[in-house]
Structures are given as C-alpha cells and as structure tokens.
Amino acid sequence: DTAVSQTPKYLVTQMGNDKSIKCEQNLGHDTMYWYKQDSKKFLKIMFSYNNKELIINETVPNRFSPKSPDKAHLNLHINSLELGDSAVYFCASSQGVRGPYFGPGTRLLVL
Amino acid sequence: GESVGLHLPTLSVQEGDNSIINCAYSNSASDYFIWYKQESGKGPQFIIDIRSNMDKRQGQRVTVLLNKTVKHLSLQIAATQPGDSAVYFCAENGAGNNRKLIWGLGTSLAVNP
C-alpha cells in the first residue's frame, strides 16, 4: 500500500564510490521529484520529471544523474561520492496542482 | 542553498493547548500554499493546503490562515497532542509554478505531556 517507496533506506559508503537510489510511486502521478534535506532540515529540490521528461534541474553537481524509465519510477545515480553529499534524499510525486507526496527517505552517509 | 548557521525555530506547548505555527512567505505572486508535517525519521507528510482566493481553510483539528497583505501563513492545531510533535514546513508555489515549491525553513513543535 506504500504510495512512494525508496530503496535503500540507509546507505553508508566510502568517498569516491558510485551509488544509486531507486524510487517508485503507485499513485499514478505524472510528476516525480528528488529532494535533498540537510542536517538542519532544509529541503532543496534537485530534479523534477514530468512523464519521464526532465523539467526541473536545479544547480546540482553533474555527478548526480536522475533517470526515469517510466512515469512510475525515478532513480538517482551519484558518481564519485563526496562527504558533502551526506544527507537525506527524498523522492516525491505529485499530480496537478496538489503538493507532492514524499517517500520515506534514503539516509546517505559518506565516510 | 544550505541553511548554514541557522537553527530550526522551536515551539513548545502543553498537551491540550492550541498551537500556532507561523510562516512568512516570499513571493507575492504565489497562489498556492501548503503545510507539511515531518516526524522524526520520516518523509514530509501533506497536512493542508490553501489557494490565494481563500483566507482560511479548516481540516481535522487544523486550520490554515492566509494573509496576503503581509504575506503571512499560519497553521493552527487545536488541542495539541503528543503525536503532533514534529517539524512543520510551509511551502509556496512561487509565481504559479506548482512543480517548484519554495520551502520554509521549518518549525519544530514539541508537545509537553
């Protein structure tokens, strides 16, 4: 019954590694997002896709590459992880004018 | 950018009291506003929204008030319960772009039994 799901929930990795986070929504929404939340709870949008098409691409290092194989999935691949990438990454989806529904988050710790 | 140097505002209330969480929004062109609740270890959860053609909207135990003159949004929680302890975020759609919300910094609500 989970509306927006993400895997993994926790990710601990070494600097320089490449990792991926997966997201799926079963709400039938057209728009999906990736957000980053830092240790002070500040939420910042990274990317948004509408029907598999990239529509928002904020100032994010190009080490971050989103991929949307279909409108129900939006994955995030991160190359050459850095210490500053440590954060909670939230996937979300929305339809029309309503605010987004968020997933449970992926807690990334780069050592 | 990052919220470096800023601390999350905290509101502490007694169980059973009413809570009021305030938010000053930035863009006078925003016409859609949302409140979210984020409990520890979870994602933000939609609580209530309001469009700019309204100044008040009520949900279950929650009321959102919008004052466009001073660009102020508030969330009132009636009879606050321990389960209301969370960080609350306001968001605005900024110039009518519903896909790119502008988020407030959040307010931490602590409910004392």
Integer average pLDDT of chain B:
90
Order of helices and strands of chain B: EEEEEEEEEE
Biggest beta sheet attributes of chain B: 6 strands, mixed
Shape of chain B: globular
| Overall outline of chain A | globular
- Structural class by SSE content of chain B: mainly beta
The beta-strand count of chain B equals 10
Cα-to-Cα separation, first versus last residue of chain B:
36 Å
What percentage of the residues of chain B does DSSP assign to strands (E)? Answer: over 45%
**Biggest beta sheet summary of chain A:** 7 strands, mixed
Q: Please tell me how large the radius of gyration of chain A is.
A: 13 Å
State the end-to-end CA separation of chain A. Answer: 34 Å
Q: Hey, roughly how much beta strand do the residues of chain A contain?
A: over 45%
Overall radius of gyration of chain B: 14 Å
- How much helical structure, as a percent, in the residues of chain A? under 10%
* Assembly form of the protein: heterodimer
Low-confidence stretches of chain B: 1-5
Query: What's the helix-strand series of chain A?
Result: EEEEEEEEEEE
- Structural classification of chain A: mainly beta
Summarize this entry quickly:
The complex is a heterodimer of chains A (111) and B (113). Chain A has strands at residues 4-7, 10-13, 19-25, 31-37, 43-50, 53-57, 64-70, 73-78, 87-94, 101-102, 106-110.
